[in-house]
Amino acid sequence: MILSFGSFDWDGIIADRVGGAQPISIIMRAQKQAMARLVIALCCATIAVACSGTGNDEHAYFTKHGQSYRVEMKGRRRLLAHDPISAVLGRTYEDRLTIELPTIEGVIDGSAIPVPPGHLRYAGRVAITGRKMKVDLYYDDRSGNAKVALPWNGEYTLDLYR
């Protein structure tokens, strides 16, 4: 800790009074270590807050729609933060994905799931057994041979939409 007022060197005067610079440097080292611990703790707390509260709901809801079924999945997503304060606040929003499946039982190939014009097709599959649904879908970018996993992948319990 450097104490200064104008051109005075308070650190040197205090060191002379207490018998040299060694006691002051020990105190400064302890203060720096305490400050480093505080910064690390704040960083860990920020990361914990920023990573919590997001994910997919455990339940997905379906309804019959003509010859097919519409399945709606919901989840919480983090708002994009353009400044540190918004990132620390960790605000989220509810997101939804509704897909149309030809059947509500068995294994459905991703290519059998219709997508709106201009959107990437799905690759992968959706497996439904009883009330359990496992989604393992990817966006199929045939031009770049890249498959990007959907954030909706995971296991759900199916319930009838009311």
Can you give keywords for this protein?
single chain, 162 residues, alpha+beta, 2 domains
Describe this structure in words.
The protein is an alpha+beta fold and 162 residues long. The protein has 2 domains: 4-51; 55-76 and 84-160, no CATH class. Helix content is 27%, strand content 43%. The protein is built from 3 helices and 10 strands, in the order ββααββαββββββ. Strands 3, 4, 5, 6, 7, 8, 9 and 10 form an 8-stranded mixed sheet that branches. A two-stranded antiparallel sheet has the order 1-2. The model has no long low-confidence stretch (mean pLDDT 81). The N and C termini lie far apart (66 Å).
Which structural category fits the helices and strands?
alpha+beta
Instruction: Bin the strand percentage.
Output: 35-45%
The value of Rg in angstroms is 29 Å
The low-confidence parts are none
Task: Categorize the overall geometry.
Answer: elongated
Largest sheet: 8 strands, mixed
What is the string of helix and strand elements?
Answer: EEHHEEHEEEEEE
**Overall tally of domains:** 2
Mean pLDDT: 81
What's the structural blueprint in terms of helices and strands?
Blueprint: E1 4-5, E2 8-9, H1 10-17, H2 22-51, E3 55-65, E4 68-78, H3 84-89, E5 92-101, E6 106-109, E7 121-129, E8 132-141, E9 146-149, E10 154-160
Parallel strand pairs: 3-10
Antiparallel strand pairs: 1-2, 3-4, 4-5, 6-7, 7-8, 8-9, 8-10
